[in-house]
């Protein structure tokens, strides 16, 4: 998927935006552009993409064999540096005496950014996301297919959840089993949220030693990475039969999530999808209990553009992929969230990557 075509698109975007160069360190951005999956470290690795001319990648000499094994030198000129060299000086030389605009990948460590700013005469520094974000937000056919494959993989894990959710087991015990199952279906575990009873009211609760009790509702939000692309899906379970308040709350949530998915089509804005889901929850009197955005983009990262929230006026186009995940949280009692990843299909409708039932699942105890 990564290759010259993506680098060419980036260079075209740099020219259109009046940006002279883009600097990209180890990150999902680097992996998306080149296929090189390496870690941030105290030794600088940096891809330098000029608006015109040959991209170059600066790597520590000891990392050069690994970079070549990933095919990086087929895409960009490889510039290596030894332990006593100054890699920032190398980057400065590649940039030349620029006085224009340089974009820096969003998550490059501050120690590198500050040294670059001191060494290179640049009039304006901008966030690399302004260049890369819109490009990564629209997936090609291979990326869409990858998201559907990884969506099916996480569905298969949710389909087994009833075997792990039992009274007397701790959230931590359940999460360990779930993580093992994710690894059976994915290359990597990204996260496991198992939030039982009152812990379900914390949207980003992970796990604790709380022991599951009969009647507990349990929010399970899980994801992994397969072939470089992420899954992310949430379903709600109850050990036995739900109390009437929780059943009512979940019924509202099902309507809201369905309304959000139904709103997805080209030309609609990200914030309009948020409003479609949120309006259902507000009308049911739970508006103050929906405390987060309706969704986020997904791809080589779990969270990327667009953001499905008020204020994001991005117009949806075919190939965009994001979550639709409204939630309702009652502090001290319980919470619920339903999450699917959807892609904007070429036919103009939402194409869900997840197909597990969205209704509350009653687990026999």
Would you kindly provide a written description of the structure presented here, covering whatever features stand out?
It is elongated and about 70 Å long. It contains ten helices and 18 strands. The strands form five sheets. Strands 4-3-2-1-5-6 form a six-stranded mixed beta sheet. Strands 7, 8, 9, 10 and 18 form a five-stranded mixed beta sheet that branches. It has helices at residues 4-17, 28-34, 64-69, 87-95, 110-119, 129-137, 141-158, 171-185, 244-262, 270-283, and strands spanning 21-24, 46-50, 56-60, 77-81, 101-104, 124-127, 188-196, 217-226, 229-230, 233-239, 295-297, 304-308, 321-324, 327-330, 334-337, 340-344, 350-352, 361-363. The protein has two domains: 4-136, Creatinase/prolidase N-terminal domain (Creatine Amidinohydrolase, Chain A, domain 1); 138-363, Creatine Amidinohydrolase (Alpha-Beta Complex). Helix 7 packs across helix 8 and helix 9 (244-262) packs antiparallel against helix 10 (270-283). The chain has 365 residues and is an alpha+beta fold. The termini are far apart. The model has no long low-confidence stretch (mean pLDDT 96). 33% of the residues lie in helices and 24% in strands.
């Amino acid at each position: 998927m990564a290759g010259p075509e993506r680098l060419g698109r980036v260079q075209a975007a740099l020219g259109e935006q009046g940006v002279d160069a883009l600097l990209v360190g180890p990150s999902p951005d680097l992996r998306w552009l080149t296929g090189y999956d390496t870690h941030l470290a105290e030794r600088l690795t940096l891809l330098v993409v000029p608006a015109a001319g040959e991209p170059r990648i600066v790597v520590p000499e000891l990392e050069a064999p690994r970079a070549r094994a990933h095919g990086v030198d087929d895409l960009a000129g490889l510039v290596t540096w030894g332990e006593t060299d100054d890699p920032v000086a190398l980057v400065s030389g590649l940039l030349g005496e620029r006085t224009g605009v340089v974009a820096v990948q969003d998550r490059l460590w501050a120690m590198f950014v500050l040294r670059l700013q001191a060494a290179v005469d640049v009039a304006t520094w901008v966030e690399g996301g302004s260049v890369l974000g819109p490009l990564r937000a629209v997936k090609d056919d291979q990326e869409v297919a990858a998201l559907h494959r990884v969506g099916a993989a996480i569905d298969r894990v949710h389909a087994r959840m009833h075997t792990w959710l039992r009274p007397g087991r701790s959230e931590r015990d359940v999460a360990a089993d779930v993580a093992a199952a994710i690894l059976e279906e994915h290359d990597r575990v990204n996260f496991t949220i198992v939030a039982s009873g009152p812990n379900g009211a914390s949207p980003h609760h992970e796990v604790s030693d709380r022991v599951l009790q009969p009647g507990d509702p349990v929010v399970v939000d899980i994801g992994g990475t397969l072939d470089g692309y992420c899954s992310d899906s949430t379903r709600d379970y109850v050990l036995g039969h739900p109390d009437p308040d929780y059943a009512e709350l979940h019924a509202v949530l099902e309507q809201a999530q369905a309304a959000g998915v139904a709103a997805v089509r080209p030309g609609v804005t990200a914030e309009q999808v948020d409003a479609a889901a949120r309006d259902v929850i507000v009308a049911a009197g739970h508006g103050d209990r929906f405390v987060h955005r309706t969704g986020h983009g997904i791809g080589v990262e779990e969270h990327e553009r667009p953001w499905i929230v008020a204020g994001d006026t991005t117009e949806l186009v075919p190939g965009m992929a994001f979550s639709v995940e409204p939630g309702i949280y009652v502090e001290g009692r319980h919470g619920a969230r339903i999450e699917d990843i959807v892609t904007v299909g070429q036919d103009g409708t939402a194409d869900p990557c997840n197909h597990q039932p969205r209704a509350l699942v009653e687990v026999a105890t």
